[in-house]
Amino acid sequence: MHGLAHRRTTATIAAAAVAALLAACGSDTKPSTTTTGGSSGAPASGQSITYWASDQGSSIADDVKVLTPELKAFTAQTGIKVNLEVIGWNDLLNRILAATTSGQGPDVVNIGNTWSASLQATGAFLPVSSDVMTQIGDTGRFLPGALAATGAAGKPPVGVPIYSTAYGLYYNKAAFAAAGIATPPATWEDLVADGKKLTDGAGKWGLTLEAGQIPENAHAAFVFSEQQGGSWFDDAGKPTFTTPQNVAAIKQIVDFMAADKIVNPSDAESSNGTEALQEFASGKAAMLMWQPAGANLAKYGMTADQYGVAPLPFPASPPAGSKHIDSMVGGINLAVFANTKHKDAALQLVKFLTSQPEEITLNKAYGSLPSVSDAYSDPAFKTSDDTVLQNVLASSATAMPEIAQESQFETSVGTAMKTLFADAASGKAITDAMVGDALNQAQQKMEAGG
Amino acid sequence: MTVATDRGRSLRRLAAADRRRSTRHKALPYLLLLPAVCFELLVHVIPMLVGVWISFKQLTIYFIRNWTGAPSAGLNNYRFALNFNNAVGKALLHSFYVTLGFTVLVVALSWLIGTGAAVLMQNPFRGRGLLRTYFLVPYALPAFSATITWEFMFQRDHGLVNQVIVHDLHLTSHAPFWLIGNNAFASLVITAVWRTWPFAFLVVTAGMQSIPTDLYEAAVMDGAGVWQRLRKITLPSLRPVNLVLVLVLFLWNFNDFNTPFVLFGNVAAPQANLLSLQIYDTSFQNWNFGSGSAMSVLLLLFLLVVTAIYLVATSRGRKAADV
Amino acid sequence: MSSTPGPARSPGAAKYRSPLAPPKSFLWTRRIALTLLGLFTATPLFVMISSSVKPLVDVQGTFDWVPSHLTFQPYVEMWSTVPLGRYFVNSTVVAACSTAISVVIAIFAAYAVSRYRFRGRQVFRVTVLSTQMFPGILFLLPLYLIYVNIGNDTGITLSNTRLGLIVTYLTFTLPFSIWLLAGYFDSIPRELDEAAAVDGSGPLGTLLRIVVPAARPGIITVGVYSFMTAWGEVLFASVMTDDNTRTLAVGLRNYASENDVYWNQIMAASLVVSVPVVVAFLALQRYLIAGLTAGSVK
């Protein structure tokens, strides 16, 4: 009798204690991510959607500051509430992956446009079919190059571009003048020669690279390979990493540090995406290959008159098959999650954010280029720097391989280059065999991922 | 009921009563365990089983959205991970060696330093309490704070380490790298040892509390010096503590993800690419969860085997020592 | 507890050299070794503290032993560069709750393991301990998927919530806690239980009135361990939280993922988020030593 009562009490108290603690702790204040209620048929007004923005500004807080008033304006206009979450680049892909796997995610999300084909393959995003496109707006407004980076050819794209970027060669005018160099280099041979003049062996270097950063490496690998007449994938989508052209391309990049010695070996350690900018802004390096950098350089105290921007150089005597490409099409796309319960509201937000005034406001704030032609009327995008990059984007930039394995290509090749840079930094000479071996291993790893 | 009947019984007979009562209270221990079992099932056991299931699936980018429908991979994921002629298998094997070397070094160094410090501080001296507290700070510091600080110190151009080596002591004119290349392994070991040895110190210090003082007094009467006392009394008495300590340190370090991840980010130098990071890459960078899970299962099997061997070997030794 | 046992402690014996007193060579070894160890321990702490009061330009150039000028700006700015305050609240709630629940559950379980001989006891002990071997990466994704499914089926949201993290972390620390507490309970004489039983206490009364107070050092040890684990976990927190529920361990990374690396703020924030744990740990260390003594030495 007695014992039974005790037993019951024990169990009850044990259970109650746990339940009470869980209840006390579980009183979460966060709004649920998957918003409930409303179907795509219902009027969008009054609905509430979640928007994951990528980190475009100088800090997440900065992004929130830029986006909040715009989203408020959107709510005032449409009655649709937007829960904004700005996600750092370290986390964004993982968060999208988790959301894809669980089916529980935001309604609208920013994706790096090089991920387009990879994410397209997951089926997680709403295909932008032609009637979806009519809801968003006129296809003709978007820059053709940017529009090409929204998915694999022949399939409906999975997003529309919102911010665009392209690579340019930033050069320090004062350093160039001091070294007696009149114009920015047009060929890599010139760049190396200039770089040697600008490298003084006492802390000043000709060129700076973010050599420990995987995406930066992969972007360079892509552009240099195009110029060598190479390609990372054949027409069937099979990786062709070890072709002589690709080996030459990677060796050329790593040799800036290993053989030409115009890059500070310390750059092999740079992986935050900020070090190269700082090296350039502080005058420790005279050249920088970067996507629109003006806003960041200004933050480090470098004014627009102190540097110039030119297109990336080309080989003096282009090898057979060389393509006149000097940048990948960079940028951010807006995608709608396929699982959204608020398709109309989500598309309205996409339409709003890619409208002319928003494209102007946001790209101005972030220092990127508008992805729609009608936004270029704004004088902010008529500076000489921007014009150079616009020309690159319009005429000599091409999208990264639009295939599902693109993100794996970036990881495997970018990592292989990071390791080669580490070798170069420790004084090793880089041989074709080393590069070929590294690329061969990268290819095997990538094939394993499929 | 039991309580009433027990009242008044002599203490000597209580043990027997206790045993009887235990059998009567059959359900009670299970009820007491119930919450623990539920949480273990939810968070550890079931997810682990799902993980094992995934390791037989071809769970790649194409199937993550409908992961239950991922096609079967049979043993392919395992075959792939263990094919040492392929870059993936080769890298995995390499990571395994790196991890083994890392773990053995960290456990050995942490144990040596921790035990050494505990032994040196066994006898009271002025400031001992304060110093003991101070030595525990690295362990108390959250792992990420400590590791971020080490990352900062290991930077080639801005770090304290090179400041000391190159500029203050002029040991070398060419500043070495610590976060990439060969030295990355050393950096990893140093960071892990810095964080781990205080734990060994704490546990060994605790273990020493239970060594009776008269053992030492008797040894001194027999003319035993410091060294002999250490060998004949302290270390043998610490054996049970050390058995557990070494095993725990081994398991923690072998599975360590925080240190390399915070120190190097997603991509570590090959020389310092621990298994946990390698598996993370396979799963979350290359989007191949089937392959990643297979590697995790292999890791788990390895740890199970090592632990089992360790426990059997040490328990046999213990029995022999008891005889 | 007697935290300073060991030989030769009679207070009046300052001049008298006990036969147990160590020789000179030992004293010198001790001095040198502990000094070196002290320096090794101090270096990162020094870097953390000194860098946290440096202006940004100082931490971007070569390392300087002293700040060019002292500034507390990093301590002000760190709250706005990333939402550190929110992360702090999240970490506190998550760590405190998972600790409280974990300790309660571990006490019940350890009591069962220590005081009862029941079928499955050995299986439970072995299973629970072997979970210590599970590589976190193996069950990260499955656990996340299970949480999502629980959310879809029952409405209890475990993914991306503090509740989910609490449940996860409390389970992480259960095996070690149960093991340590069971060891500790074993060391508490059964006679105490019996005496309580004689006085009319049921099992629960005995546990609460006798065992728990007697096992205080062990319980504190387990609590500190649970709190530290929850406070510092990175891998699961990085996948299972969103902006609202992010904890410090993950949030701190955001200082470096921005377009600038605010090393001075990172160091200041590292210091600030470490202080509660370190202070609590050090304040409770006497109990830790006692707790580990009884728990592990059996």
Protein described:
The complex is a heterotrimer of chains A (450), B (323) and C (298). Chain A has helices spanning 2-25, 60-78, 89-102, 116-122, 130-136, 144-148, 173-178, 188-198, 214-227, 244-258, 275-281, 294-299, 343-353, 356-366, 384-396, 406-425, 432-449, and strands at residues 48-54, 81-87, 108-112, 160-165, 168-172, 205-208, 285-290, 307-310, 327-328, 330-336, 369-370, 397-398. With 450 residues, chain A is of the alpha/beta class. In chain A, the strands form 3 sheets. A 6-stranded mixed β-sheet of chain A has the order 2-1-3-10-4-11. A 4-stranded mixed β-sheet of chain A has the order 6-7-5-8. In chain A, strands 9-12 form a two-stranded parallel ribbon. In chain A, α9 crosses α10 (244-258), α9 (214-227) packs across α16 and α10 (244-258) crosses α17. The longest helix of chain A has 24 residues, at 2-25. Chain A is globular and about 65 Å long. The relative contact order of chain A is 0.17. Chain B is mostly helical and 323 residues long. The radius of gyration of chain B is 26 Å and the shape is globular. Chain B starts with a helix and ends with a helix. In chain B, 50% of the residues are buried. The model of chain B is unreliable at 1-9 and 319-323 (pLDDT under 50). In chain C, 72% of the residues lie in helices and 0% in strands. Chain C is built from 15 helices and no strands. In chain C, α1 crosses α14 and α10 (216-232) packs across α15 (285-296). The two termini of chain C are 18 Å apart. The model of chain C is unreliable at 1-15 (pLDDT under 50). Chains A and C meet through α1, β2 and α3 of A and α4, α6, α7, α9 and α13 of C.
